[in-house]
Design goal:
mainly alpha, globular
């Protein structure tokens, strides 16, 4: 009988190296994702049940993006920004029309921060995730504009300030 000795333990995967510009862009995008998750809680309170699935899908997407961004930053040894207890909305939300406008604002804000991440990072992984996030936010914003009856459903350059 031979005794088996355990081999060397595998080394942990290397931490991703994020430059300062990428970290700054990811932190801004993470802050926007936190705000979007919070905003959709308010939005849900004012929209009719027929819009519940759209709200649930948006919340799930923003939570997943938030969690992935937090993991990326944490894996790189960077402490991710935390969510605020509440956020200031651009106008009072008193009904469905206001809630739909807030949804457009949440999507527009996240699109802007993800566009910035594309522009400021040279890392393929970050740019790919940011492009996916920008595209998703632009599509959701267009759907919210259409639901609100806006004549201009899309914008020429999503995420452009």
């Amino acid at each position: 009988m031979t005794s088996s000795t355990p081999g060397p333990s595998p080394s942990p995967p290397p931490r991703p190296r994020l430059d300062a510009a990428t970290v700054s862009a990811l932190q801004a995008a993470l802050a926007a994702e936190h705000a979007a998750v919070w905003a959709y809680g308010l939005i849900a309170a004012y929209l009719p049940v027929e819009r519940a699935e759209a709200v649930a899908d948006a919340v799930a997407t923003h939570r997943a993006r938030r969690d992935a961004t937090e993991r990326l930053l944490t894996d790189a040894g960077v402490g991710p920004v935390t969510a605020e207890p509440a956020y200031r909305v651009p106008e009072p939300v008193d009904g469905p029309a206001d809630a739909q406008r807030l949804a457009v604002t949440a999507e527009t804000d996240t699109a802007q921060t993800w566009r910035s991440a594309i522009e400021r990072s040279s890392l393929r992984q970050v740019r790919a995730a940011a492009l996916e996030a920008l595209t998703g936010a632009a599509v959701r914003a267009a759907r919210w504009r259409a639901a609100a009856g806006d004549e201009t459903v899309t914008v020429p350059f999503p995420g452009k300030p």
